Amino acid sequence: MATESFGFPFEVGTLSAWLVWILPFAAAMIIPGIGKLSKHATGYVAVAFALMSALSAATMIPVALEAHELHHQIMWIEAIGLKGGVLADPLSIIMANVVGWISFLIMIYSTGYMKGDKDITRFWFWMMFFIGSMQLIVLSDNLLQVFFGWEGVGLASYALISFWYRDKKKDHVGVEGRTVLGMLDYYAPTHAGMKAFIMTKVGDVMMIAGMLLIFLFAGTFGFKELMGDTQWATTMAAQGLLVPAFVLLFGGAIGKSAQFPLNEWLLEAMTGPTAVSALIHAATMVKAGVFLVARIGPLVFALGAAGIMADQFFEIVAWVGAITALLLATQGMVNPEIKKVLAYSTGSQIGYMMMALGVAGLSHQYVDGYTAGFFHLISHAMFKASLFMAAGSLLHIVGSRFMTDMGGLRKQMKKTYAFMWAAGLGLMGAPFITTGFWSKDAIFAAVYESGNEWAMPLYAIAVLTAVITAFYTTRMIGMVFFGKKSKHIEKMEEEGHHIHEASLSMWVPYGILAVLTIGIGLIGLSAEEGLHHVFTDYLEHSFGIHSEHAAAETSILPEFLQGLNPVALGSSLVAFATGIGLGYIFYIGRWVDPVKFVNSNIFFYSIHKVILNRWYLNAIIYWCFVVAPLWLTRGIFRYFEKTAIDYGMNDGIQKAVGWSAKVVQGTQTGVSQSYLFVFGAGLLFVVLILLI
Amino acid sequence: MIEITSTPLVLIAILGTVGVILPIISIARKEKGSNSFYAVIAFAALIMSMGYVGYQFINENVSASALFSDDVIVDDAFGGFFAIAMLIVALFTTVGSFNYMRKHNSPAVYYSLILLATIGMVLVAYSTDLVMLFVAWELMSIPTYVLVGFMKKNPSSNEAALKYFLFGALSSAIIVYGISISYGLTGSTNIGEVIQGYSTLDPSLLPLALLSVGMFIAGFGFKMGLVPFHQWLPDTYEGAPSPITALLAAATKKAGFAASIRIVILGMVFLNLDWTLALGIIAVMTMTIGNVAAIMQKNLSRMLAYSSIAHAGYILIGLAIAPYSSLGLQGSLYQIMNHAIMKGAAFIAIAGIVTTLAVTNIDKLKGLGRKMPITALGLVIALFALAGIPPLSGFWSKLMLFGSALDASSVLWWAPWLAIAGVLNSALSLAYYGWITRKMYFEGETEKRIAEPKSIIAVMIFSTIFLVGFGVYPEPLIKFVEFATPVISLGLMP
Fold first, then answer.
1. Which residue numbers in chain B have pLDDT < 70?
2. Which has the closest alpha carbon to A333: A636, A612, A46?
3. Residues in CB range of B23: below 8 A, 6 or more apart
4. d(CA A113, CA B17)
5. How are beta strands A82-88 and A173-180 bridged, if at all?
6. How many beta-carbon pairs under 8 angstroms link A with B?
7. Cα separation of A529 and B237, whole Å?
8. What's the pLDDT at A7?
9. 8 Å CB contact between A388 and A339
10. Is the CB of residue A110 less than 8 Å from the CB of residue A127?
11. Per the confidence metrics, is the pTM higher than 0.80?
């Protein structure tokens, strides 16, 4: 380390790795103070710090491109030899840049979106806290530190989802009065925040159990140390604990990334300000779970290569991802609220990523699936952030979260219309020009080529989900921008509200991301190859995972598509065409009225109802884990607590102690003669015990 | 032959000289009421003594804990450990009296008596001869009789002194009786020789030897406040001036333990192991009765008096376990050091409350957290440390004590019950510590802050730093305790 000769304790890159997550926390520290001086200034401070954090992340890019890594540790708790540190390897550097830059854009957007909110200081505080926690997860070099960030993210999400804690009607989600199986499908912000917090905690508890299990055997939380000496894994595998430990860790990811069966919190999380939704869905929180799997996946695979098999872990990851992808995509088709459609879409896309990361471990070419999953994470971060921010603009201007209250807006909001198309095409996977296409195609190829026994069912689910994705995206755009103006808008215009384009600070951020979606999409194949190259080197260096560079086969595809899997490409194109075609028929061309179509026969009607009722999953969870325990506790309180505990133990113990204290006090007469008598008796007692 | 620079002799020289000179100065000066003048001199003497003990430790002039010696005193780590604990408490008492004695007469005599009692306590810990030990014992006791009754116009102070003296005289007599029996059996007063004599005793004389052990337990047990020799203790602690109560509870009590470890434990290991059961029973009785009685108390001094009885029970666990687990005595010494600081600080806090508010009734402590924030915080920290709440220092010593009981469970069937009793009692004690805390912080609303005596604040800050500091980072203290604890094993003979 040449820099050390200057007396500087870090390499410059290492310093950046620390700064990336410390800066947002520092901002969170000072923002309340600045808020006392000027509420207006807090936004600028937050944006400035977000930019600095993103720039710090950017300075590390050369390290990633050379597939180097920076690992810097400090002593954390000396007594138990616990070290803290940062680990900047290609994975975390790329992730940190995605998080950093997208957060930065969202922060700019927020300055417009949150303008004039009374509690703006609190908003900025939690946003910066959120970003800092996420970057802490990304750059930590050990599981325990990850867990601290993990909980920070959970806390911040709770605070931001219930940001509008006054529970005004306009801040709710769901249709007022609608019930599913007797459970109200209509949530207040405070309820939603609590729901998110508790549901993710289920995952967190599993995660901490998995962490501690590994620590018990390995004696370390560090990723490098775990990879360094794999004796612990052998021991754990011998006791059959290795797969359970990894699956428990994955439990944390299931909770954070809203995967089946802990997916239901994600929808209600829409009660937060839209900027928060964008942050949760594009850059932080839900991506944390994917990142965790990407962090530990290579380790598990490397262990497998060393003969310690943990394939079940990858199977579970792949199937959880697949189920979630399909389950949530179907619900996206029917929901009337624009943010909820996007939320379903997020869960579904995360499912894709999980599927890719899981399938990677089941194939021989780990790097293919790994790259595909991570590439999809990046492209999804871009187009989903863009879509959310655009949806936020719509909400802001129309004043309703329902798509049925919009309609025909393409004239008034031209820019938003264009950008939403661009980002939406990314989500649909429009061929050859969007990042979404290339990343989704890579996932298809990885699943198809994995050669696993589950490959075909997973592939079928992936393609079906792609069809549905294209359909609901078209539906969303159709409902918002095409057709007649809704009654709501007509009423607004009668009252003199002018429907207009969003302000500059709002449309620029999502414009940038929409343009990037197309821009990077145009060079998508080489971008993916670059990423593939970086990850190949990374996995080789850090985990010793070799990948065979198959000789380029000449396929039936034209020159510029060489290297793609023709089957994956074909199904990708068909899925896109089918989805957008169906969407066009119903919502843009409006040749068939979807309501009439659904009601036309009992079969469609019942499917629609099941999907609209969220597959009854949410209601069942509420019945089992909210209503039933409440009944149980009430019962216990009435029949056990009040009788056995209250009358029996509480009063009983209190009386017994009081009584014995009185007895003891009774001997304390204050009369010296009696004291002396006791003293003498005591002496006799002691001598007697000794003599016996 | 003992060297002239050995710690006990130098301490006698420093404390004795100042102790004798103080009253002479006061006669020469012929002026009354300059309390702080004498306090500063006494404080300086104690600091010098403390410095010398520390100096001896740092220069490694102190031998590792010697069990026995041919001389009457020995300059070992065990004695040094107790000397440090006692000197700290004596410093607490002196500093705490700055304000307390301002309104009272003859301060010179008061501080002189504190210094003389301190010599006595320190010498008890250093003694290796029964006669020396008895002399030191009396040197410690007699000044404290006077100090307890120092408020001569206050009837409860007088009553306290009378009771204390009555029991002190009785227990001294019993100790002398024990010494005379052991001398009769072995022909020596040197503790090492007595023990050697006991181990080769004719079996028909064994009951007599055991009788002498019983005498020692009862005699020292009076100072330690063991049940059933405890009844004088609450009355005395309540009636005595609060700084003196600190001295009694935190320091003279420890002298009893020092003497017990030197004689009863070290010595009697070689005699007969059955006595450990007696100590175990006394330990459980002591802690249970102490805690149960403390719950009902309305007076803070009295409550803490019972709590100090309970703590004697905890410390006794370690003594009972001593032959079976090396952790036992370590735990006891650790708890002794902690208890000296915790109890000392708690009674000094009471002294502060009494001098400013003139109340000791717990109901009247409402809103103390607002009235006297620093004193209240120091008191709460001391109380929580007494309850053994982590991460305060008191937690580690209790952990070690209860751990030693579990450690010994493989050879001693009743040992785990000591740990169980200890844990249950700690839980019980939380009830009254928590109650005081609630009174001080969660009741009363309109109180304004009033001036707190600076000397009390100094003690509170010191004790808080000690308890929190060694609670978070207990390593050095544990090392010191390990160094000071005599290693005893059944194979060891004098």
1. 1, 30-33, 66-67, 266-274, 488-494
2. A612
3. B108, B109, B112
4. 81
5. unpaired
6. 79
7. 84
8. 41
9. yes
10. yes
11. no
Is the torsion defined by CA of A8, A10, A12, A17 positive or negative?
negative
- C-alpha to C-alpha distance for B39 and B41, rounded to whole angstroms: 5
Task: Supply the ipTM of this predicted assembly.
Answer: 0.78
- A8 burial via Cβ count (<10 Å: 0-12, 13-18, 19+): exposed
For A567, the token pair is: 């089957």
Q: Is A427:A388 a contact under the CB 8 Å cutoff?
A: no
| Spans of chain A below 70 pLDDT | 1-12, 77-80, 548-563
The helix/strand/coil state of B8 is helix
Whether B113 and B43 have beta carbons less than 8 Å apart is answered as no
Residue of B216, B231, B274 best to disrupt the A interface, most CBs of A under 10 A: B231
Q: How many CA atoms lie within 13 A of B259 on its CB side?
A: 35
Whether residue B476 is preceded by a cis peptide bond, meaning omega within 30 degrees of 0, is no
3-state secondary structure A106-169: HHHHHHHHCCCCCCHHHHHHHHHHHHHHHHHHHHECEHHHHHHHHHHHHHHHHHHHCCCCCCCH
Tokens standing for A652?
């009983």
A671–B contact, CB cutoff 8 A: no
- Going from the C-alpha of B105 to that of each of B22, B101, B146, the distances in angstroms are 14, 8, 14
Q: Is A326 helix (H, G, I), strand (E, B) or coil?
A: helix
Type of residue found at B297: Q
What pLDDT is stored for residue A1 in this prediction? 37
3-class DSSP state of A311: helix
Using only C-alpha atoms, chain B has a radius of gyration, in whole angstroms, of 21
A660–B228 C-beta distance less than 8 A = no
Asked whether the beta carbons of residue A686 and residue B227 sit closer than 8 angstroms, the reply is: no
> How far is the first Cα of chain A from the last one, in angstroms, to the nearest whole number?
76
